[in-house]
Amino acid sequence: MSQVELTKGKVRVLIEDMESEQIERTISKNDTDKFAQVICAFSNDVSKTSRNGYLLIGVHDNGRLSGLKATDKLLQSLGGLRSDGNILPQPIMSTQSFSFLEGDVIVLEIQPSPFPPVRYRGRTWIRVGPRKAVASEMEERLLIEKRTANISTFDIRPSLGNGIDIIKTKIFTENYLPNAIDKEILAKDYRSVEEKLASLRFYSSNYASITNAGVLLFGKEVERYIPGAYIQYVKFNGDNTAGEILNEKKFTGNLFDILQELDTFIEFVIIKQKPVAVSVLKESRQLDYPKWALRELLMNAIMHRDYESNAPVKFYQYSGRIEIINPGGLYGNARPENFPDVNDYRNPVVAEAMKVMGYVNRFNRGIARVKVELEDNGNPAPVFDYERIGVFGVVVYSANNKENEKKIDKEQIRKTREKTREKTREKTREKILRLIAKDSKVTISELAIKVGITEKGIEYQLKRLNEDNILKRVGPANGGFWEIQEMGLGETQ
After folding, report:
1. Which of 13, 101, 211, 394 has the fewest beta carbons under 10 Å from its own?
2. Cβ distance 307 to 391 under 8 Å?
């Protein structure tokens, strides 16, 4: 969260201030390389200011506005810099637009990362006064030391007493490093293997130990140190676990090997085809499951699971469906009312490594694409189970067994989805009311950006609030203001 909530007044001060370690201005709208480097540099906060950095788009170096028009497409493009996987680990940032008489200003507010070094396409960028630069070896070491005070997640913790002898260093140096670090930087990197591992959060210099992430990604005997770190596949004859076991397999070892093996297994063992008549003289081949959708759901289970549990990821195949269940329910900011739109990472280093290895394309976009892939293949929609404590599950029904659609309790699904949607609406209305309580003249477009929904969505919620006698518009559309009734204001407190 911002240290001080951004307002037009605050932005005006930033515009008129001198460009400094915390402020950078630009009139470019599409120099994504420059924007990403600035985000990376502010995230690293090498000077330990603990202050947020601001990239002001639409402002000349002398503080004069360029007359920029902040379109929805431009705002979405800039917001996407956070999750496109080129900046790792993901930066903590927000994107807002402010309108002035001279033009619009888009502000990217970036918080110092708790887990530096943050890299853009394998390069560590830092702020050196008012400019940015690639970090030197010493500066990167300072960032690594800074990170040790923020060790919190399981994958970042050291596996105490275990050095690099328990991992396959050749996989790290020959396969992983070339994908994680810019090749020019790597060619000049003469540090020890331990130092290279430490720079990517796979080794703790303070404890002279490999981290849990290092064990998971490159370990020789992973289950010896993390007992539940495997995937259990079972194929049953029938629609429950009482049926005869037709096939079973345990995927064990480090993730670098497991993920490759899973890819092949899904394609050649799980996926089946059958002929489907298109016309009297023509037929096509119907897949029972789209490979990419199953692959993505398995990758999510591996990425988000709780590795402190001794239970494995369960990959169970029945006569007409597949179930994937992983230990660890929704994590952090992800909750039933906002899933899958909001995500959080129980294992940020593992998530970053899977992106580097090409098993994740973009963060927080997988579920949406899974739904599209299933629909395009003719499968029913996936059914997610995130209500049970301590586990997360998903069921995918075969496209080649239409009887499955009868087995899905559609009414229960409808009720669950409606309940989730209503909770989301309530939280959206509460957020709108809080924003209006702070600024009664806030515009619909400003509300849309801050709340994170479309302007039509804001208009719909404002109409509902007005019909419920919670909110009233005073004055004309231009120049008027919002007035919260006493009941409505009380409900937001």
Report:
1. 101
2. no
